Amino acid sequence: MAYSLLKHQVDMKALGMIKFEADSVETEDLFKDVYKAGFIMLFFGLESANDRILSIIDKGCDQKTEQMVLQNSSRAGIWNHLYLFFGFPTEERAEAEDTIRFTVENGERGAGIVHSVGQSTFTLEKDSAIYHNPEKFSIDRILHDPDRDMAIIFDYEIRKGMPREEIMEVYERFDQVLEKQFPSRKIWNYLSREHFLLYLDRFGREELLKMARDESITETVGA
């Protein structure tokens, strides 16, 4: 798509969603073309930064690949946003901590190749691969409520991994980590992605990061 946009000299600014591939495929040169084509912000489905969990999810990559691809994209000038979640079936606390550590080490106060993050907790959706193969993911029983015959999200029972209470504890602690490690959260956390794209186009990545550290600008945000 980037090559076609460049070929036809399309003048635009946009955000895109992308999956992690081998860093030999998603090279810095590729991302430079993506950036030149107008994609100044990319959304990556990180999900986890623990290799065992990534293997179970069948992401087709490992933590090392995630880091290299994010580095290539960031060097091209792109704003990298991560989607991740906690509580995938069988995930242990230490594995969730791997994801937190990865985010911090590569975040705004770390290597600077992760610029914003959206976190959630795992939900079991109807007709997903896990829904149809619960035993493969160590789920003991999917709970069907007869009063919710149109349900698309289901509770389930599982004996491995973190209990629900611990998952929520990790999620809430991570929210505090983001607040501390990402000063720019004062900006992007309060805007839809489309509105943030307008700010990114207007001011640029580095200026936005600089603005986020200026308390005279951000002191009233979220008040």
Q: Topology, pairings included?
A:
Blueprint: H1 2-7, E1 14-18, H2 28-36, E2 39-47, H3 51-57, H4 63-75, E3 79-86, H5 93-106, E4 116-121, E5 124-125, H6 129-132, E6 139-143, E7 153-158, H7 164-181, H8 185-188, H9 193-203, H10 205-212, H11 215-218
Parallel strand pairs: 1-2, 2-3, 3-4
Antiparallel strand pairs: 5-7, 6-7
Helix pairs in contact: 2-4, 5-7, 9-10
Summary, kept brief:
The protein is of the alpha/beta class.
Report on this structure.
With 223 residues, the chain is of the alpha/beta class. The chain has one domain (2-121, 163-206): Transcription Regulator spoIIAA (2-Layer Sandwich). The chain has eleven helices and seven strands. It has helices at 2-7, 28-36, 51-57, 63-75, 93-106, 129-132, 164-181, 185-188, 193-203, 205-212, 215-218; strands at residues 14-18, 39-47, 79-86, 116-121, 124-125, 139-143, 153-158. The model has no long low-confidence stretch (mean pLDDT 94).
Backbone CA Rg: 19 Å
Distinct helical segment count: 11
Q: CATH top level? A: Alpha Beta
Helix content bin: 40-55%
Number of strands: 7
Give the distance, in angstroms, between the N- and C-terminal Cα atoms: 41 Å
Main sheet overview? 4 strands, parallel
Average pLDDT level: 94
Uncertain regions spanning at least 5 consecutive residues: none
For the largest beta sheet, what order do the strands appear in spatially? 1-2-3-4
- H/E series: HEHEHHEHEEHEEHHHHH
Structural class: alpha/beta
CATH topology title: Transcription Regulator spoIIAA
Shape: globular
For the record, the CATH architecture stands as: 2-Layer Sandwich
Number of domains: 1
Give the percentage of residues in beta strands: 15-25%
